[in-house]
């Protein structure tokens, strides 16, 4: 594979025009959109308007006149097609961790008499921490299921399982569960299925309705490009909308927040998942950012994501294997998300040396250099050039230089 072949792939790419929807710094190859997406065009203008007109000039009237009150629904409606979700099933508001807490409690409450939560040891840590916290709060037992060791989830399911809570795509190993199969297994056991879509939303053709999923959460700041600390989204299946019973019963989830009633009455729709005042700045940024997906087919996004990771894997085999670099991701498309980790000694220094060359990825313990493929703005030539830089770093041992091995707080 030479650079001309990568150029030909860019020429044939039906999504290539979408790169213009982003403000990418010159000369940067950004392979970390799975951690923090780049700035979409239109966001800066939206924030300027929000601050200088809506907040400064129109003050509190903006809740009505500039759609602040409706932002969770406005943003939810933009997310629904990306998630294969029916209208009126998605909202935004809290961090992923808080949203996960609310959904886990709601799920457990819907299965009284069952005492087990099934989850994975390979979870992103917050998922495991929140599962542990909810288990302690409600007196549940956590049953750990390791898909690589026990591929068939039925082995850990029985009629004591209240909730199965899983990350759709593993944040380190890029392994992806089959959403429909796992959901069906959970349902056969009578459990609620809760998906964390942080590493899928915006990069994988998620199909919540098709999978028959019950509940889901996901980050706004990764492939959805909603900016640092963007609010997370929450999905509730249509059949559960008027029964889901979440624990943080704040006024924004009330049927009539401004009736200011003494007692809590949940909203009859997905708004009941809200708790407190909408984080308006973050939600407005996410709202503007999602315009980058306007008219975009998630099937095309998925096709390009896989083509990019295929290209990366074949270039890595050709040019990096001699340096002891081992790619960590399933080779079958059906089991692969939108990122690839390279396992190598000195992975932290490797990532730092690449950042010095303006190729941005991130490091995950213990020895993984992680690279995400975001189909909206990445080109096949970016993938090609990135691997060329990787080979140069290894050939010159730049990853072993003292300035590259000093750990920063955020890796
Ligand atoms: C799978 C997964 N869940 C949750 C989170 C983060 O949650 P929060 O938005 O609460 O920081 C991450 C962050 O990387 C993640 O990868």
UniProtKB/TrEMBL annotation:
Gene3D superfamilies registered for this protein in UniProt: Aspartate Aminotransferase, domain 1, Type I PLP-dependent aspartate aminotransferase-like (Major domain)
Gene Ontology molecular functions: kynureninase activity; pyridoxal phosphate binding
One Pfam family per UniProt: KYNU_C
The protein, known as: Kynureninase
Entry GO CC: cytoplasm
Annotated pathway: Cofactor biosynthesis; NAD(+) biosynthesis; quinolinate from L-kynurenine: step 2/3; Amino-acid degradation; L-kynurenine degradation; L-alanine and anthranilate from L-kynurenine: step 1/1
Job description of the protein: Catalyzes the cleavage of L-kynurenine (L-Kyn) and L-3-hydroxykynurenine (L-3OHKyn) into anthranilic acid (AA) and 3-hydroxyanthranilic acid (3-OHAA), respectively.
Keyword annotations of the record: Hydrolase, Pyridine nucleotide biosynthesis, Pyridoxal phosphate
Oligomeric form and interacting partners: Homodimer.
Enzyme class: hydrolase
